Structure formats: structure tokens, C-alpha cells
């Protein structure tokens, strides 16, 4: 299966209630697959092509407000259009799943893969002090796995979750094992699981209000304080990463998504040259594996980050490392995917010999 | 065993589907596979290529810059990928439409007249399967029974009546592939 298709199928199986989207390359297969699969016949899930990205994200806002498991997907320019809605959803503390199959920017840019939306995904994107949980799949299997995990985390923390993929992971085919179909929640279950949702007021409870507006500054500050507490809790509980060949590593690569895959090959190539290289692959970009990188910084000689961007995640790696060891960035931009041999050369030039 | 293959030609020649059938056949034989296509503007009329990796072990990078085998179906792809074959590797091409033949001396080179053969068979659509047959003759990395399963998996049901023709084309490809330059 293609990564995009695996995500779509996994979303159905995770018991999603609704998908709202607008087509854009390289993620159009998500909605194509959903339309072809007719999940409204399989599980009752709604699949709807909205009139625009802005409409799609606001449909997600509405669905989420009712306690439904809803999602949308797009690629970079479309995700930019959704930012207002994402900020509102984060402000209103609603759970939802957003897939970004990143392409090269800025602007309409290119339709080829890129990782230049790291800042947008992890540091805001929309206005206000908010965070999304950001999951970065590096295989078709993880595209499938993160649909279910994404919903789980979104509801656990009442927070939007972004799956930050890229054109390569979305378009490529690999083997994938899918979860069994999970039944959609019934109306009764939704009322029980999400007592905050606007499911229709009953006599025995207060009115539920979903809003991101609070004109009383004192209340709004308190809301922000509560949000920050939640983000801190997410940082403590949900940081995920993978270590590959790090036990004896003297030189470390930090890379996520497609870059992690080719960096893994680069680690093999470096080890063949007798260089003890290792890879730390962040799986969550927010929360970022700061502590794990900090620990490794005590025993490696240098760190190279590999990103298909001008160097965005490298800033978070530098914050984790302080100035203890050299941290350099290597990347290609505009839809070019670096080759593993280029990564090896960069490690020699910028870190080992530099 | 790891086999890293690039298939490159014009959009519409069946480049991506040839890769897909090979990849699915690998999955059916329980191997690790990856299928990484070029997409977008290249597919809309220009050149198309796909990287297929079939391995007994977990595949690290689906994106690579050198290949064990390159299957080349037009001149642009020859210009782009001849240099990317690993020394000692294999280059297979259909001479039809090729104006500059490969010049490398450190690789094995084979030709396969698949365009001619497909029109002789009266089935231009199976062109890509003739090529696939030629490749499988040199590198029998998946067994014939799994190729059949791969065809069943990647062709829509309404085209399953075409599977015997596809298999015939694969067999024909095995017969007509010719060595042009072999290393000792």
C-alpha cells in the first residue's frame, strides 16, 4: 500500500466518524482511497470533499465539538490555509487528527517531498500560545499506526494531533500490517466518553460551551496557564523516539521521517568505513526528545541533523545540546531528497573533519 | 539478498506498474519491499521512474543513488541513470528509440527488443511484462508462482483475464533478452 492509502484505511479502522478534505498533491490518494472504499457503507463514516481547505478544517472543528473522531489531510499550502482553524481548535481544546504530507515551499513551491514545515507544525503556525502533538512517521507502517495513535492522544489530551509526513512517505509503497476494525463509538458512548462535547443539553447538567473566545483577560490568562500545564504534561508523558546503533556511537545523526530512513543507510555506510555512527529518530516532534539528545551529547563527539529543509529541527537539537559538542545541519531543499552518500560526505566534512 | 532496481522510461510505458508487480510479487514471497515512484509533473507526459528494493532484511532507505540493476526504456533515462549502475551491476535496455548506446565498461549490459516483440505478439500493452521477463531471467529474485500472485494483486479484477497473456509475455522476455557486453 501507498503511505497515503495506509493512513486512510487505518483511519477507517480506528473508528473515525468523519473525514473532511480538499485535494492537493501529494496527498490526494487519502481522499481518493476513502471515496473508493465507501466507509459510509462499511462503518457509517462520513467522507466529504469540502469547497476549500478553510471549510474542511472548520467542518473538523464542528465535528470535534460534538465529540466525534474527525480528521482532515492536506499538503503544505493547504495546511497553511487551515492554520486559523487549527488555532481555534487548539484554543477550544478539541481533539482531531490532521495529516500534512509535506511538499517543498514556500508558496505553492513544488509537489516533491520536503520537511520545511517543521517550524509551522511544532512552534505554532497559527496565532496564540498553542501546541499540537506532532507525530513523524518514517514508514508506510507508521502512516497506518499513527492514525490510531493520533486519535488516542487527541482524545486523551483534548488537543489537535498532527501527523507530519512528506511526499516520499505518502507516495511510496511498503508492506503494512493493519489493525482490526474498531467499531465507531455510539451516541451513548460519546456522551459518556466526552462529557464536555455539545451533544445536546439534558436537564441534569450545565450547558456545554465550545469556544476559543474569552473577553475577560483574567479568565483568558488562566485558560492559557491551563493550556501550558497540559503541554508540559504532554512533554513529560508522550515523548517518543527511536535509537539506532547509539550504544557505542561517537557521531550522532538526528533525523525524522524520510530523512531518518536515508540517514539509517548513511549510518550503515559510515560503520562500514569504521566510523561509529548512530541515529536518533524523533517520533514525536512535539514533544521533542530533548532529554535523550542531551544525554547522548555527553558521550558523542559531534551531531549532524539531516532534514529536507534549510535547517529547522537543528535549532531544537542545539537547544538540547547547549554548546557541549558541535551540532551542524545538512539538508536539501525545494523537493530534492539527499542521498545516503551525501549524508556520509556531510558527516565527514562538517563534523568529523570540521 | 538485497536487490536495488531502478526502472525508468516514458510515462505510459508501464514503468510504475512493472515496478508494482515486481514489488507485490516480493510481498507475496514474504520479502521486504519498497516501491518509490517519481510522481507529479514527470508522470504527466514526461519521464517516469520507480525505485524498487527487494530484500530479505529490513530496508533502510527507500531512496538510493546507485542500483544493482537499471532497466532503461528511453534516451533521457539512459542519460540520467547509466552512471548510477553499481560497478559490476546490470543495465537492461530496449534499443528502440535509443540514439546513444551505453558506454560503461564496468557493468553488464543486456538488450531486449520488447517494443518489436510486443507488436509481433499483437499486444503492445504487455511491453512492460516482456521487459520484466528479461529481468527475471537474469535475476530470478522472485519465483514464477509469486509473480502470478503479484499480477493478481496489482491488476484490477476486470483485467484478470489478461493474466495468461502477461505470463506469456514474461516467458517471451526470458527468451529474447540478449547480452551486449558481459564482464568476465
Report what the structure shows.
The complex is a heterodimer of chains A (354) and B (184). With 354 residues, chain A is α/β, with parallel strands linked by helices. Chain A has 15 helices and 13 strands. Chain A has helices at 3-13, 28-37, 39-42, 53-65, 76-81, 83-91, 118-122, 140-157, 167-171, 187-193, 217-237, 257-272, 290-297, 313-321, 340-352, and strands at 18-21, 46-49, 70-74, 96-102, 133-135, 160-166, 173-174, 241-244, 251-254, 277-282, 284-286, 302-307, 326-331. The radius of gyration of chain A is 21 Å and the shape is globular. The relative contact order of chain A is 0.13. The model of chain A has no long low-confidence stretch (mean pLDDT 97). Chain B has a single domain, classed as Pyruvate-ferredoxin Oxidoreductase, domain 3 (3-Layer(aba) Sandwich). In chain B, helix 2 (75-81) links the parallel strand 4 (67-72) and strand 5 (85-93). The A-B interface holds A 25-26, 111-112, 167-168, 171-175, 258, 261-262, 264-266, 268, 337, 339-342 and B 20, 23, 27, 32-37, 39-41, 59-65.
The count of strands of chain B amounts to: 7
CATH architectural grouping of the largest domain in chain A: 3-Layer(aba) Sandwich
> How big is the Rg of chain B?
15 Å
Tell me the number of structural domains of chain B.
1
- What is the overall number of helices of chain B? 6
Count of alpha/pi helices of chain A: 15
**CATH class category of the largest domain in chain A:** Alpha Beta
- Which two chains form the greatest contact, residue counts included? A-B, 23 and 19 residues
Let me know the CATH homologous superfamily of chain B.
Pyruvate-ferredoxin oxidoreductase, PFOR, domain III
Low-confidence residue ranges of chain A: none
In terms of quaternary structure, what is this?
A: heterodimer
User: What is the succession of H and E elements of chain A?
Assistant: HEHHEHEHHEHEHEHEHHEEHEEHEHEH
| Low-confidence blocks of residues of chain B | none
Return Rg of chain A in Å. Answer: 21 Å
Which structural class is indicated by helix and strand composition of chain B? alpha/beta
The CATH superfamily of the largest domain in chain A is known as Thiamin diphosphate (ThDP)-binding fold, Pyr/PP domains
- Strand order in space, largest sheet of chain B: 2-3-1-4-5-6-7
